[in-house]
Design a protein that fits this description.
single chain, 284 residues, alpha/beta, 5-stranded parallel β-sheet, 3-stranded antiparallel β-sheet, 10 helices, 12 strands, 20% strand, globular
């Protein structure tokens, strides 16, 4: 896994966000006693690498695998899936369970949705007749610190979902993430929004503040004074321009994922032909 970024000099205590996410993941694993095989959605692998070290997972009896079409090869009797709410991933899980049942394997299955479960996914599990065989939960990873001054929702196709597919669930996700920030840093007094989607996020956030109020009296002055929400459609030209910073060029040609770029080891002077290494691009 990639190196966890140093967040000590952040303007607000974003380390607490990472620590909380790590604590929630470890709590899930502790509640499943004994050795277990943790099967991770490949899209979540990079995100988890910024939260928890592989060594810590192994201390809690975890054997790591990535979810794909291949069947799970493990001697563990407990299999834990950590996945996004995607129907394609549910099909992989159903295939694994059906294969184990056909071979007479006695295993317990746990499916934890990130950041929340979906009715469509559970319905598919029911249709495939595996829903009663799995224990379902949620791992509420809504926001991820990439650097001292960068927090990511990890919603890389949110604009496409909203503008093309008509799926606005990402707007709820964004509002929920901001509301979680408020429980750590106080109620944000000034919220400014430009664009239809941003206004909608602000409305959802306002509703959440009423339904789940932040106890401002216990927190004192809020650490975040103003939140500015901008729609991508407010400026459609910028993404089409050539980037002129070094990191921007790396992203354009090599792709930056989870604050790191993957390079051939020979580029970094390592004598490991054909192997890729991750190079963090944070301020440290």
């Amino acid at each position: 896994m990639a190196q966890i970024p140093n967040l000590d000099n952040a303007p607000i205590n974003v380390t607490s966000i990472r620590d909380q996410s790590q604590k929630e993941l470890i709590s899930i694993l502790k509640n499943i006693r004994g050795k277990k095989c943790l099967v991770i959605d490949p899209k979540l692998g990079g995100s988890l690498s910024l939260i928890v070290q592989t060594s810590l997972l192994k201390e809690h009896g975890v054997e790591l695998r990535h979810l794909n079409t291949d069947l799970i090869q493990t001697e563990c009797t407990k299999v834990v899936y950590l996945v996004r709410s995607q129907l394609e991933l549910m099909k992989f899980i159903c295939s694994h369970v059906h294969n184990d049942v056909s071979k007479g394997f006695q295993r317990e299955y746990f499916v934890y949705f990130v950041p929340r479960r979906s009715i469509a996914c559970e319905k598919l599990l029911e249709e495939e007749k595996v829903h009663h065989l799995v224990t379902i939960g949620e791992y509420p990873l809504y926001i991820l610190p990439l650097d001292e001054d960068v927090l990511s929702f990890e919603l890389d196709i949110a604009f496409k979902e909203c503008a093309v597919d008509g799926d606005v669930s990402s707007l709820w996700h964004i509002a929920k993430a901001i509301h979680k920030l408020e429980f750590s840093f106080g109620l944000i007094p000034n919220v400014r929004a430009k664009g239809k989607a941003s206004v909608r996020v602000a409305d959802i956030l306002e509703r959440m503040q009423v339904e789940e109020p932040v106890n401002s009296s216990d927190m004192g002055m809020p650490e975040i004074n103003t939140l500015v929400l901008l729609d991508r459609e407010v400026d459609m030209v910028t993404p089409m321009c050539s980037q002129l910073t070094y990191e921007g060029l790396l992203d354009e040609f090599l792709r930056v994922n989870n604050g790191a770029v993957e390079l051939d080891s020979s580029v970094m002077g390592a004598q490991q032909d054909g192997k890729k290494i991750k190079v963090p691009l944070n301020s440290r």
